[in-house]
C-alpha cells in the first residue's frame, strides 16, 4: 500500500512534467535536430551560469570537466549549460562540446527570428527540461518497480504460507493417524 501511494504521487508529478518534456522533444523532432553521428561513451553536462562574480564555482566545474576529458578525450563529449563553462572549455576542448548542434539543423530556419542568443537560451531550457523529464520518468519507473516487487513479495509470502499450512496439516494428520493406529493396535492386543 505504501509503494502504491508513492507510485501514485510519482505518477501525478510525472503527468505535470510530461508536457514540458514532450514539447522539448517535439521541437527537436520538427526541426530535425539529430544527435552527433558518433555516440560518446561519456557525456558530461556542465551546468554554470551566464554571469561571473560567484567565486570559483565556474572554475571548479571546468577544472573537474577538464580532468574527465583529459582521461579519455576521444570518447567524452560535453553539453554546456551557461556561457561560463562554454567559454572556459572552448579554448582547449572545443571539439568535445556538442551543445551547438541545434544551430546546424537544416529546418531550424522555419522558426522565425532565431538568433544565436535565442537558440542558446532555448537549448539551455530544453536540456534542463528534458533532464528533469527524464528524472521524473525514472522516479515514476522506480516506484512502479518497487510496487511490483512488493506485490510479488506479498504473493510469494502468501503462496509460502499456503504450502507451509498444507505441510503442517498433512504432518498433523499423519501424527493423528499414527496415534490412532497405535491405540487400535494396543486395544486389539488386549482382546
What would you say this structure looks like, in words?
- This is F-ATPase gamma subunit.
- This protein has 191 residues and is mainly alpha-helical.
- The chain contains four helices and two strands, in the order αβαβαα.
- Strand 1 (42-47), helix 2 (57-71) and strand 2 form a beta-alpha-beta unit.
- The longest helix is centred in the C-terminal third of the chain and has 75 residues, at 116-190.
- The radius of gyration is 32 Å and the shape is elongated.
- The model has no long low-confidence stretch (mean pLDDT 81).
Write the layout of secondary structure elements.
Layout: H1 2-30, E1 42-47, H2 57-71, E2 76-81, H3 83-93, H4 116-190
Parallel strand pairs: 1-2
Helix pairs in contact: 1-4, 2-3
- The N- and C-terminal alpha carbons lie at a distance of 64 Å
Q: Outline the biggest β-sheet.
A: 2 strands, parallel
Structural class: mainly alpha
Query: How many strands?
Result: 2
* Strand content bin: 5-15%
What is the molecular shape?
Answer: elongated
Counting DSSP H or I runs of 4 or more residues, the number of helices is 4
Low-confidence stretches: none
Q: List the helices and strands in order.
A: HEHEHH
- Mean pLDDT, nearest integer? 81
If you compute it from the alpha carbons, what radius of gyration comes out, rounded to the nearest whole angstrom? 32 Å
**Share of helical residues:** 55-70%
Side-by-side strand order of the widest sheet? 1-2
Amino acid at each position: 500500500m505504501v509503494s502504491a501511494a508513492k507510485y501514485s504521487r510519482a505518477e501525478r508529478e510525472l503527468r505535470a512534467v510530461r508536457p514540458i518534456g514532450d514539447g522539448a522533444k517535439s521541437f527537436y523532432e520538427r526541426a530535425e535536430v539529430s544527435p552527433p553521428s558518433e555516440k560518446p561513451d561519456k557525456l558530461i553536462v556542465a551546468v554554470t551560469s551566464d554571469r561571473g562574480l560567484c567565486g570559483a564555482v565556474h572554475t571548479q566545474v571546468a577544472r573537474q570537466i577538464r580532468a574527465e576529458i583529459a582521461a579519455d578525450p576521444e570518447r567524452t563529449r560535453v553539453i554546456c549549460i551557461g556561457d561560463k563553462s562554454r567559454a572556459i572549455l572552448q579554448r582547449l576542448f572545443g571539439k568535445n562540446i556538442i551543445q551547438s548542434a541545434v544551430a546546424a539543423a537544416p529546418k531550424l530556419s522555419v522558426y522565425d527570428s532565431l538568433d544565436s542568443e535565442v537558440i542558446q537560451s532555448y537549448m539551455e531550457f530544453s536540456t534542463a527540461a528534458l533532464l528533469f523529464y527524464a528524472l521524473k520518468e525514472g522516479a515514476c519507473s522506480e516506484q512502479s518497480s518497487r510496487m511490483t516487487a512488493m506485490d510479488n513479495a506479498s504473493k510469494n509470502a502468501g503462496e509460502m504460507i499456503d504450502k507451509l499450512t498444507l505441510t503442517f496439516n498433512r504432518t498433523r494428520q499423519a501424527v493423528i493417524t499414527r496415534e490412532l493406529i497405535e491405540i487400535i493396535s494396543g486395544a486389539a492386543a488386549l482382546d
